[in-house]
Amino acid sequence: MNYTALSLQQTPPISVPLRFMLSAPLFAILAAVLMLYTGPELFMSRWQPALLAITHLLTLGFLAMVMFGAMFQLLPVLMGSLLPRPVLLSSIIHGLLSLGIVLMAWGWIGVLPVLFNWASLVLGTSFAIFIGLMGFYLLRSLSTHITRYMMLMALLALLGTITLGLLMLLGLGGWTTTPVHHWIDLHLSWGLAGWVLLLVMGVSYQVIPMFQITSEYPQWHKRWIGISIFTLVLLLGLVPSITGQLLPLLLAALVLIYALTTMRLLKARRRKLPDVTLRFWWLAMISLLVLSVLMISPLPPSAYITMTILFIIGFAMSAANGMLYKIIPFLIWLHLNTRLQANGRWQGSVPNMRQVIAEHHGYRQFLLHLLSLLLLLLSSAGFTYLYYSAALGFLLSQLYLFWNIINAIRLYQRISGQNSE
Amino acid sequence: MEVNTYEHLLDVSELEPPEPLVQTIDKTLSLPEGNYLCMLHRQEPCLLFGKLDELGYDYIQQTGTHNTEIEVYIWKQGDKLARQRVMQSIGDTP
To answer: What pLDDT, on a 0 to 100 scale, did the predictor assign at position A5?
Structure first.
């Protein structure tokens, strides 16, 4: 990497990542409202339209939003690649993604098949631009950092996930007839074990040593675990006849290795200050650990929903939520500092990271997230009387996250206004 | 290793971003003539070098010898004495 060419000026305008990151809790709030509206019968079957809508509000509305925002931010800084017209492109991708998610969720809730056709068109365009843009610049980047390869593999998995998803949406809209069951399993494994897991892993290789002051992940881990998971996920699609018990067993073992390695690093971190992101990482890794055990345990089909909650909310949303508490304060500091320097000053009143989002606000939101996760898991496992408490807890947690992000943005606006005076 | 009076040691290896950058820039801006900063870090400080270029400082990065992964020597551009002392220090490093 050419470090002398790397400059803070390479980071995109702050509105680029923030538009995605601010939207994420809004879609999770929508999901929580839908949970409350639907009632405990939500967990009766994995094919419930409301459950499908909620799942996609969380995977696309929350997770993809955070991940898109993080990639728009990380790519120029880590990879040394400048993205062209970042504001215009991120606005188009963000706008189409938001509209597509709403159309799709509305299609399921309102039983309106025509909306699936519109959703597939809008979402397809958004994802095509995003994957094309990120793929092109990742391939062109000269970086040899493992995060680049992890992002490329995650993008390929996303391409597979989205292609299958769009075909199924068109099927729901009456345009195609599809062999649905095998495609759904593939859509799930490529989306969750491919796109989500590989991207979180790739980003964690960067941000855990950087922000949690840990040792680096071992070289063997970075070299083999990601590519092995990608190969397994690919095999699940290409050679479905050999899936049997072997591939899930291998996948569970790899997931377990990643969770245990990360937990070992976190436990031996050099800086012992309390940190809310650290708590989210622990929760994400414990969820992954439990999930890897459940994956190879003889469980009834009804456990499927519990396992999905454990992956999406326990692992992926915890990791993304925790990272938001580092990424957003860091971006705000970075941009305030850059504005200060643009005015010819190198030292001035820029708040530190912990002043942007106070630790106690992050901690309270973490407790709400943890509580709602436990209640949701119990509720899906048969304790249905906990359902409304779980949904309400999840709603409060996401409202709190949204409030924390909004306050951070207000602080940025206030100080950038003062510094430009 | 003997620390010279003109060498300012700054260990940022246990600080989270952006503190290593902030503290390094603060120390750099207060370097007297003939003095240099030796910044110790656990990883390559990728955002630092662009800032040092803009501020008019030279730097050399090398593998750490103070029980940290990375050492960065920083001095004011055109400060020949500071540069000479950095070169001596690096040359003296076993």
So the answer is: 36
Does residue A70 belong to any structural domain of this protein?
A: yes
Instruction: Determine the residue of chain A that is closest to B58 in CA distance.
Output: A4
| Surface-to-core class of residue B39, CB atoms within 10 Å of its CB (0-12 exposed, 13-18 middle, 19+ buried) | buried
Is the ipTM of this structure higher than 0.85? no
A421 in a domain, yes or no?
no
Which residues, in sequence order, are CB contacts of A353 under 8 Å at separation 6+? A326, A329, A330, A333, B16, B18
**Is A154 contained in some domain?**
yes
The number of folded domains in chain A is 1
Using a CB-CB cut-off of 8 Å, the residues of chain B touching A341 are: 54
**Nearest alpha-carbon partner for A20 in A415, A281, A405:** A405
- B66 pLDDT above the threshold of 70: no
Candidates B17, B50, B53; nearest CB to A211: B17
How far is B16 from chain A, CA to nearest CA, in Å?
A: 5
**pLDDT tens digits, one per residue of A218-243:** 999 999 999 999 999 888 877 766 65
Tell me: pLDDT of B1 over 50. no
Which among A272, A328, A346 is the top mutation candidate for probing chain B, defined by the most B β-carbons within 10 Å of its own β-carbon? A346
Specify if A419 maps to a domain.
no
**Counting Cβ atoms within 10 Å, is residue B64 exposed (0-12), middle (13-18) or buried (19+)?**
middle
Provide the whole-model pTM: 0.91
Domain range for A267 is 3-341+349-414
- Cβ–Cβ of B54/A7 closer than 8 Å? yes
- The CATH number of whichever domain residue A354 belongs to comes to 1.20.210.10
Mean pLDDT, all residues of chain A: 90
Flag whether pLDDT at A4 surpasses 70.
no
Distance from CA of A270 to the nearest CA of B (A): 7
DSSP at A10: G
The confidence score (pLDDT) of residue A418 equals 77
Range A162-178 burial, b when 16+ CB lie within 10 A, else e: bbbbbbbbbbbbeeeeb
Query: Which of A244, A227, A324 lies closest to A25, judged by CA?
Result: A324
Residue A385 has pLDDT above 50, yes or no: yes
Name the residue facing B14 among A213, A346, A352 (closest C-beta).
A213
Q: List the single residue in A with minimal CA-CA distance to B15.
A: A213
In chain B, what residues touch A270 (CB-CB under 8 Å)? 13-14
Give the nearest chain B residue to A208 (CA atoms).
B16
Is the CB of residue B92 less than 8 Å away from at least one CB of chain A?
Answer: no
Q: Quote the CATH superfamily of domain B7-92.
A: TusA-like domain (3.30.110.40)
pLDDT digits (tens, 9 = 90+) for B17-61: 888 998 999 999 999 999 999 999 988 887 788 889 988 999 999
